[in-house]
Amino acid sequence: MDSGYDTIATRLNLATVLQALDQYSEAEKVLKDLQEQYPSDYRFDMQMAYLPDRPAPHQRMAQIRRNTCVYRTNLFVVGIVDMIVSAVAAVVSAWIPAQQEKS
């Protein structure tokens, strides 16, 4: 910002544009510089709250795919456990009357 128009508003707008371009670390740097220069101004903290604590969009898609895979795996395991429990219940329900007949 060497053009002589380096104002708080201009730098806040720069941080907003950097956020829109997914350049979060650069936006954070601009906002932290402003915080150091103007510690009593709340606007920088407020805008930093909009910086994501999550990965970039392509990394989020990979995370969604991993979560979906884990979800499907969990459903598969739950299905197998359900079948085992049903089989054990069937064996036990057949065994109990047989034991009652013996006594």
**N-to-C SSE series?**
HHHH
- Radius of gyration (CA) equals 30 Å
Tally of DSSP helical segments: 4
What separation lies between the terminal Cα atoms?
94 Å
Helix content: over 70%
Topology, number of strands: 0
Described by strand count, sense and barrel closure, the largest sheet is: none
The shape is rod-shaped
Question: Could you characterize what this model shows?
Answer:
The protein has 103 residues and is mainly α. Helices cover 77% and strands 0% of the residues. The protein has 4 helices and no strands. The protein has helices at 8-20, 24-37, 43-48, 57-102. It is rod-shaped and about 100 Å long.
Compose a concise summary of this entry.
77% of the residues lie in helices and 0% in strands. The chain is an all-alpha fold and 103 residues long.
Secondary-structure blueprint of this entry?
Elements: H1 8-20, H2 24-37, H3 43-48, H4 57-102
Helix pairs in contact: 1-2
Question: What attributes characterize this protein structure?
Answer:
single chain, 103 residues, mainly alpha, 4 helices, 0% strand
